[in-house]
Each structure stands twice: as structure tokens, then as C-alpha cells.
Design goal:
Elements: E1 5-7, H1 20-29, H2 35-56, E2 60-63, H3 71-78, H4 95-103, E3 113-115, E4 122-124, H5 139-148, E5 154-160, H6 162-167, H7 174-197, E6 202-206, H8 216-232, E7 237-240, H9 249-252, E8 259-263, H10 268-278, E9 285-291, H11 301-312, E10 320-324, H12 343-346, H13 352-368, H14 374-388, H15 396-403, H16 416-427, H17 444-454, H18 460-481, E11 485-486, H19 498-501, E12 504-508, E13 515-518, E14 521-523, E15 527-534, H20 540-547, E16 553-559, H21 561-566, E17 569-570, H22 576-596, E18 601-605, H23 620-635, E19 643-648, H24 657-662, E20 667-670, H25 676-685, E21 691-694, H26 707-717, E22 726-727, H27 739-759
Parallel strand pairs: 1-10, 2-5, 5-6, 6-7, 7-8, 8-9, 9-10, 11-16, 15-17, 16-18, 18-19, 19-20, 20-21, 21-22
Antiparallel strand pairs: 3-4, 12-15, 13-14
Length: about 775
């Protein structure tokens, strides 16, 4: 019997080859597009995407992987989960309200934002406050009907699943969970049934939360959810998990669904063991997540085809789909414009549009036993081998330096309490010192200078002069505002990882390999393809210039080794721990260069430390061991009087206090303005022994908070942060903000710190 095999993806990038999505939505925010015009342009973008995926050879197209800002927010809005603070907005239940929830506005704070599992994508956290849920207009049916107009290919609808949605929603306690689910599941049933009736061949329900540790109560809840969905719908539900192996496989594999999508990249070991031990239902589809949706490397097609054949031993008669391990939204769109990369690297790359043909190749081979394009398979194998043996991956100098490291290289000589006393005497800062995270607004002029310089239309000397003028201007602004510790503003930097990668050996940079970080904020991760090596100072000149313009301290600003790793596309031929140590060794040399140049406060940011964690706590220890060691390797070579700062972005810190304490940084600033109360509660249970600055306002919103609002946050924080360890700062860098709102917000922040000093009757 011939087994049915389909070529599919969990999802495809919605931003477009040239970030068309970003440009459309930002024009709408600037009121350059009406809502109707926005909808028309988005529709054209979706249709073009479907046509391209069909042309690339997929036999099934996914619909519902698009978003207006964030897919969790799309569902919350669809279910009428609009918090009370947005109800007054004119045109409620329109995109005006939707984007206020995403970004805030002049008088309303935005919804909380945090990392999507262990990726660098940030989602909007839905809020449930015991309100009555209802189903608003079903945009997914609209998108499905729209897709049917442009293709005859089988269409699979996709939704983030009810269990994952509920687990990632805040605002309810265990007593309210039943009420929440009683309302939520019927809405999902209606939504899914409408998609089935509109012509979706199947409905992919994405449940990445089912790869986490599950309690007995969790499992029973999932069983009840899918029992109700099965009874209420006629849809072919494909329950899809990713980022790890399916938890509690022996129970959950029995759920009444038409099939399962499993990740055989990041959850390969666990999923294989489960299938071998428990088997797989013979009447269900198995969607094999075979092609890595989170990296940019070519796939070993022969190896992966053999892997599929091995799985087929356990499911000889099942329909199978060959697909990406997760949505390709975490991968750039296409390599076709990357003409400046070294051929040995370019040939080894596969972005989304190159991964789809790999899926198609394997699908046809599994179905027919013959490679449809043998020369492509051969070329792929040769490209992988050529990069593997390239000189860039065999730097003897780096290997020798790493071998010579001793345990002493990972530790500062004095304990924090002793360092603190020395630093307080040396730095002589006031109580509740004020500072910023590092970057200041990059105006159109700054971006124009950089673009002209990169194109060769502005000389090195002229570009440096303009940057120095902007740095000087902002040093004076900071002094006028009354900030205590200044920064140079980072006007020379496009991205906090890219900037350093451009100055280190072993990195490569693309022209257009963008992925979404949050909302319309896109990043272009560097590619770590070879051994990482430091060859010259990267930040010393800018820091020394800024310090020469003020008598106050200027922080040196570096991105930490784990963040550089986690925010890059990383070579896959050695362990991530080995790559992290290479980066840390390079940064260690930069820290030494800054200190030698007289910079006494050095910030080494690690906003991505947590997102690299394995999803299950049972696997945390190994990652944290090498990640913490990498940070300490980069920062432990300074004098005791030199103060090491770090910064972390949105993430759940409640279960992460111990690892960040292990970093042994003198001061940490935390991006917590959208979830401040939660962190205060956490610190009451587990105190943090070092200096800490809890972000007092949200830099992702244009809103300028009042002094009293910040003062309230500071007063609350005094309950858990001792005054001698208390710093005052925004919650993240200010690069994306406008100058007037930045100055106004910082002015209020400094005033709030003064109120706190007056309250405690200390000198300004």
C-alpha cells in the first residue's frame, strides 16, 4: 500500500522578503494608511506568500500564521479579552484598541510582553479578569477564504491551542481556571468548526506548552479540552508541538485528534524514545518536524531521509507529513539577495525559501524512493563538507587560549560585600543612582549618516565627527537632566549583537536576513560560522571620547557572550558551550581594554540569558553551568574597584533568581515595568544580594509616565531592595524612542529618584 506523504510547514514568515509587513503597519501607526488600506495591503502580502509557497513545491499551505502584531494578541482580541483600561478608547474592538493593547498610548500602558518559550520572539500576554468571553469576528475564516481565491492547494488552518493560550494568559488564579476554561473551550470549538466548514482540510492546533513539565491536573485538563473539541467539531485536528518532545507521551498520544505534529529537531531524542517505547496510533497522521525552523543551515538530506525511513518502521501505514520543526517565522525569508557572503558560507545556508525545497525533496524521495533532483542533493552535501573543513573553523590560537584557562579565570578575587565597600569609596555615587541602559534615540539623521558611510558616501573621518557631535550633545543632555552615571548613547551601533560581531573574527553578516523580535521590531542576527577571535578594541574609542566630555562616570557598554550566542545563528558543528567560551574570551579582552583606558563602570548585557534555557527544568543545569561560566569568564578579570553591571530583558524571573545571582555582577538592571508587581513578590521570597535597578517605565511605549507613577514603583521596590543597592533606570535601551518623549520620561525618572532621597532624608 502506498503511503500518503505531504510537504508542509508549521508556519511561514509573515514579514515579507523586504519587511513589507513592518513598513505597512508602521505607516498605519503614523496615520499614513487608513484601516481599510492597511487591510488591503496585508491581504496582498498574504496572497503573495501563498503563491510563493505553492511555487516552491509545498503540497499543503498553512493559513493563520499571519498576525496584525502578535498571534497571542490576535486570539485575545478575538475572544474579547480586552482589559478594562482599554474600554474607554474610541472605536473599541477596532485596530485602534488592538494596537493600544500592543503598544500602549498617551494615557494607557501596554499589555505585558515576554519571550515566546525559549526563542527571541516576544508575545503579548493576554489578560483575563473574570470577564465574559465572546467570539468576535473570525479573521481566520476571512484569511482562509482569501487563500482559496489564489490557490487550489490543500489549505491547513493553524491556531495557537487552548491549553497553551490559557497557560500563557495572566489575571486568573486556580479558582478562576474552571470559569475561564468553561468559556474558552466552546469559543475554540466554534472557531475550529467555522474553519472546517469554510474548507480547511485540517486545523493545526499549536500546543508548545505540551512540551513542558505537566502535572496530573494539567494532563486531565488537556484530556477534557480535546474531548470537548472532538465532540463539538468535525475538523481534522492536528495537534502540533515544537521546541521539545511531547510530554507525557503515553497519555497524550491517546487524545482524540486526527494526528500529531512532533519536533524531531529540538525534541528528537525524547520523541524517538517515546515512539519506540509506546508506539504511535496507526489511525493518525504523523507530521514529522524534520527541517530545523530555527536555524539557517542546509540539511543533510540523505541523513534525514534515512531518519524518516527509520520512523516509518513503527508506522508503516500511517499518512505522514514532512515539515519544519516549528514555524519558519524564526528563520529569515530567502538567501537570494545575499550576494556578498563568502561562497563557502553562502552555499551552506538555507533560509525559509531554501528549506521548503529541502522538505519537498525529502517528501518526494520518501513517497517514490527516488530523489527528484539528485544533483541538488549532491551539491548540498558538498556545501556542508566544504564549510566544515574551512580554515575559519580551525583557529589554533583560539583553541590554545581556551586550553590554558584555569578555574581562577572564572572568579573575581573578592566577595561582593568587600567589592561594594571599595566601589562606594572609589565611585562616590549618591544613594539611588540614576542611569540608563545604554542606547539613546537614533534619529533619521543618525541613520542617514550611517547609511551614507556604509555606502562609501561619507568618509570615516566625517562619520566619526558626526557621531562625536551626537555623543557630546547627549552627554550634555544627560548632565542637564541630572543623571548620575552616563552612557555614550551607542549611535554607532545598529544592533547590540551585530555591532560586536562585525568586529570579531568568525562572524558573517547578511543584507536582508530579518526576523521579528516583537511587533514591528525586526533584527538581523549575525551568523557565527567560524572560530570567534578578538583582534582589536571594539568600544574603547567611543567610551573614552564620551568620558572626556564629562566629569561624571560613563559606562562602557558591551553585549554579553550568552546573548551574542543566543541572538545569532550559530554554527552546528561544535557545542554551543564551546562557542560561548570563544565569545567570552574575546569579550574578556575588551573588558580589559576598557579598564586600561580608565572606564570604571562596565556593563555587560545578558538580556537573552534565560531564553537559552531548555524548556524543561530537568535539563536546565547543564545550560546554566556553561552560560554562567561564560559570563564570568568575560567579566572576572577586572579590579575590585571596577563595577560590573548587567541587564536582562522581559522574562519570568520568579524561577530564575538563583542563576542571575550566580553571575556575580555588581549591579543588574531588569526589564520589568510591565510586570513589576510580580517581580516584587518574587524578590520578597528570594532576595537578590547585589545591586539592582528595576525598570521604572516601559520604553516600548511612547507614553511618558508621571513622576508619581514612577515614585510609587520605587516605593514598592524599597520593600525588597536595600537602599544602598538600589539603582533607578528605565527598563531597557532607548534607541527606538523619539527624543522629546525620552527626555521627558528621563526628567520624570530623575525627579522620582530625588523624591525617594528626600523621603529618606539623604543628600542629592
Amino acid at each position: 500500500m502506498k503511503v500518503s506523504v505531504k510537504a508542509a510547514v508549521v508556519g511561514y514568515p509573515y514579514i515579507g522578503e523586504n519587511r513589507e509587513w513592518k513598513k505597512i503597519v508602521e505607516r498605519f501607526w503614523k496615520q499614513e494608511l487608513s484601516e481599510r488600506e492597511l487591510q488591503l495591503e496585508f491581504a496582498n502580502l498574504r496572497k503573495a506568500s501563498i503563491k510563493k509557497q505553492e511555487a516552491l513545491g509545498l503540497t499543503q499551505i498553512t493559513v493563520g500564521d499571519f498576525t496584525y502584531y502578535d498571534r497571542m494578541l490576535d486570539l485575545a482580541f478575538l475572544f474579547n479579552m480586552i482589559p478594562e483600561r482599554y474600554q474607554h478608547i474610541e472605536g473599541a474592538k477596532t485596530l485602534t484598541t488592538y494596537y493600544a493593547m500592543a503598544r500602549g498610548n498617551d494615557d494607557t500602558v501596554a499589555s505585558e510582553m515576554t519571550k515566546w518559550f525559549n526563542t527571541n520572539y516576544h508575545y503579548i500576554v493576554p489578560e483575563y479578569n473574570d470577564a465574559k468571553l465572546q467570539l468576535n469576528h473570525n479573521i481566520y475564516v476571512d484569511w482562509l477564504n482569501e487563500a482559496k481565491e489564489v490557490t487550489g492547494i490543500e489549505l491547513k488552518a493553524t491556531l495557537i491551542g487552548p491549553y497553551t493560550f490559557a497557560k500563557l494568559t495572566k489575571g486568573y488564579d486556580e479558582k478562576q481556571l474552571a470559569s475561564f476554561m468553561i468559556q474558552l473551550v466552546p469559543l475554540y470549538s466554534t472557531l475550529i468548526q467555522q474553519l472546517a466548514e469554510a474548507g480547511a482540510s485540517s486545523v493545526q492546533i499549536e500546543e508548545p506548552a505540551l512540551t513542558l513539565e505537566l502535572t496530573e491536573e494539567d494532563i486531565r485538563l488537556v484530556e477534557e479540552i480535546y474531548k470537548q473539541l472532538d465532540e463539538a467539531t468535525t475538523a481534522n485536528i492536528i495537534l502540533t508541538t515544537y521546541f521539545e518532545a511531547l510530554s507525557n507521551y503515553e497519555r497524550l498520544i491517546k487524545l482524540p485528534v486526527a494526528g500529531f505534529g512532533l519536533d524531531f529537531v529540538h525534541g528528537k531524542k525524547g520523541n524517538i524514545q517515546a515512539i519506540r517505547h509506546y508506539g504511535f496510533p496507526q489511525d493518525k497522521v504523523l507530521a514529522i518536524g524534520l527541517i530545523n525552523g530555527r536555524d539557517i543551515w542546509r540539511t543533510n538530506l540523505m541523513e534525514q531521509a534515512q531518519f524518516v525511513q527509520a520512523i516509518q518502521y513503527y508506522i508503516p501505514n500511517n499518512e505522514i507529513w514532512i515539515q519544519s520543526s516549528c514555524s519558519l517565522q524564526h528563520c529569515p525569508v530567502t538567501t537570494k539577495v545575499e550576494v556578498t557572503l563568502q561562497p563557502v558560507l553562502k552555499n551552506a545556508l538555507a533560509f525559509s525559501d531554501e528549506k521548503i525545497p529541502e522538505i519537498v525533496q525529502i517528501t518526494e524521495y520518501i513517497e517514490t524512493g527516488v530523489w527528484p533532483n539528485p544533483s541538488a542533493v549532491s551539491a548540498s552535501m558538498k556545501a556542508i563538507e566544504a564549510l566544515q573543513t574551512d580554515v575559519s573553523r580551525n583557529n589554533a590560537k583560539v583553541a590554545n587560549e581556551l586550553k590554558q584557562l584555569t578555574n581562577q579565570d572564572f572568579h573575581r578575587p573578592l566577595a561582593f560585600e568587600e567589592r561594594l565597600a571599595l566601589q562606594q569609596r572609589a565611585l562616590n555615587l549618591p544613594l539611588f543612582p540614576t542611569t540608563t541602559i545604554g542606547s539613546f534615540p537614533q534619529s533619521r539623521e543618525v541613520k542617514a549618516w550611517r547609511a551614507a558611510w556604509r555606502k562609501g558616501n561619507l568618509s570615516d573621518e566625517a562619520y566619526e565627527e558626526k557621531l562625536n557631535e551626537e555623543t557630546t550633545r547627549w552627554i550634555h543632555i544627560q548632565e542637564q537632566l541630572g543623571l548620575d552615571v552616563l552612557v555614550h548613547g551607542e549611535f554607532e551601533r545598529t544592533d547590540m549583537v551585530e555591532y560586536f560581531g562585525e568586529k570579531l573574527e568568525g562572524f558573517a553578516f547578511t543584507k536582508n536576513a530579518w526576523v521579528v523580535s516583537y511587533g514591528s521590531r525586526c533584527v538581523k542576527p549575525p551568523i557565527i560560522f567560524g572560530d570567534v577571535d578578538w583582534t582589536a578594541p571594539m568600544t574603547v574609542k567611543e567610551a573614552v571620547f564620551a568620558q572626556s566630555k564629562t566629569s561624571k562616570y560613563v559606562k562602557g557598554m558591551l553585549t554579553g557572550p550568552v546573548t551574542i550566542l543566543n541572538w545569532s545563528f550559530v554554527r552546528d558543528d561544535i557545542s554551543r558551550a564551546d562557542v560561548a567560551n570563544q565569545i567570552a574570551l574575546a569579550l574578556r579582552k575588551e573588558v580589559a581594554a576598557l579598564e586600561d583606558a580608565g572606564i570604571r563602570i562596565i556593563q555587560v548585557d545578558e538580556p537573552a540569558l534565560r531564553e537559552g534555557l531548555p524548556l524543561r527544568k530537568e535539563n536546565w543545569a547543564d545550560y546554566l553551568q556553561w552560560a554562567v561560566k561564560a559570563f564570568k569568564l568575560s567579566t572576572s578579570n577586572v579590579d575590585n574597584e571596577t563595577q560590573i553591571h548587567t541587564h536582562m530583558c522581559y522574562c519570568e524571573f520568579n524561577d530564575f533568581i538563583e542563576p542571575i545571582t550566580a553571575l556575580n555582577a555588581d549591579v543588574i538592571s531588569l526589564e520589568t515595568s510591565r510586570s513589576h508587581g510580580e517581580l516584587i513578590h518574587s524578590l520578597q521570597d528570594d532576595s537578590y544580594p547585589y545591586g539592582v535597578g528595576l525598570g521604572v517605565y516601559d520604553i516600548h511605549s511612547p507614553r511618558v509616565p508621571e513622576i508619581v507613577e514612577m515614585t510609587d514603583i520605587l516605593n514598592d521596590s524599597l520593600a525588597v531592595i536595600p537602599a544602598p543597592l538600589f539603582w533607578v533606570n528605565p527598563d531597557c535601551g532607548l534607541k527606538t524612542r523619539q527624543e522629546p518623549e525620552t527626555i521627558a520620561a528621563l526628567k520624570n525618572m530623575v525627579a522620582a529618584a530625588k523624591v525617594l532621597r528626600e523621603k529618606l532624608d539623604v543628600k542629592q
